[in-house]
UniProtKB/TrEMBL annotation:
Organism: Diphasiastrum complanatum (Issler's clubmoss)
Record's protein name: Uncharacterized protein
Amino acid sequence: MTNVSDNGKSLEPPISPDKILPQRKLSTIPLMFLIFYEVSGGPFGVEDSVQSGGPLLALLGFLIFPFIWSIPEALITAELATAFPENGGYVVWISAAFGPFWGFQEGWWKWLSGVIDNALYPVLFLDYLKWVFPSVSGGPTRLACLLIITVALTYFNYRGLTIVGYAAVALGIFSLLPFCVMAFLAIPRLKPERWLVINLENVDWRVFMNTLFWNLNYWDSASTLAGEVENPQKSFPKALGFAVLLVMFSYLIPLLAGTGALKLDLAAWNDGYFADVAMAIGGPLLKWWVAVAAALSNAGLFEAEMSSDSFQLLGMGESGMLPQIFARRSKFGTPILGIIFSGTGVVLLSWLRFQEIIEILNFLYCLGMLLEFAAFIWLRIKQPTLLRPYRVPLNTLGVVLISIPPLILIVFVMTLASWKTVIFSLLCSVVGFLVYPCMIYAKERKWIMFAKVPDSQGLPVMDVSASIAIRNEDDSDAADSLLLERTLVNEEEID
């Protein structure tokens, strides 16, 4: 997209296009593993579900929860990401449905939730690595390592999204293999009755639900970099479908092995306990492998979340929702300011406690998801002829019905939040409500330069997908072809 100021004059980017290195777009396999890392990254972090709910509730949670939450969210993401295949993802969807004000709020809630989420991974990286190197468990050494890890991973993200995608494939395979070995070695020791242990009177529902929700959400995050995906109309549905299966098995198999092969000790099931499980089942070598895999998996989680957060800001800059400087890229094609802002937020928030982080990010994420489900239904009603390369195979009533269970779950998770979380989230929302009109004021007076986005060139205002086609296609013949296809689709539906 050409950078244009509000007075119509072209602006020179900090790095001219001919100096930006050629970047390959993401294909289906790297996209699948990026989605896997956006959502899961493996069973690391699920231990609290056993401690708070017991083996039976934990297993049922990771078996049933995906059908109530993960699959509906993945289906919605597949439909809307292919209808609006550009950077910014859910921000674009909400803007198309409810206007730029709510699009901005969606972006603010989801970006803040993502940055808070990303603050967990350097901490979890060290929590598992301490089983191999005890010196990183506390004190100045731990603080120094946290800063070094954050800076190093942020720089790696800066070097290019394609590199991050293929690194996610390698990390995913390496991180899941030890659990396949552990599950195989655990078979002779399994006692199925251990899976049935439950004590409903002692369940910590707040921790249990927040742990489940955190480990099975963020399916929509990869949509923010849809503009960097090769053939997103086909790649997104395939990648999401395979990622759902991969995430479910990556949780259930280790939990079945760990809870079925060892005598239950609820107090021991906390962050990093899978290293002890591996030690008991396979010995020191398997424990070392799990610990290193967990550390590297958290590096993959960091990279995937950083990519999503930074490309979201880039997309908002390209669409004129944030100042134009957010749309600028490095010579590697990565968002310069998006990475700086996201990395800084991680450093500032890494001092929060694990469960505090999960509860706050879940609450902010829920606010954004309420808007996403509303936009999904609203666009089905108000824009029935919107070009949807992938369409959830249900009519309007059907999509309303599949949205009800996730919406009930969202409200339930929000009611479990502490007053501290509610107040913090409300204050963050007030900031977003105030910043947007301030930016509009500054934009009108040309105090800050924003990208000037072409209008729909005579198309109906709500016909957003056609507008995107015109905006993104460099070849006018290709744009004309897409618009002709859209016209034929409209005529067929009218007939």
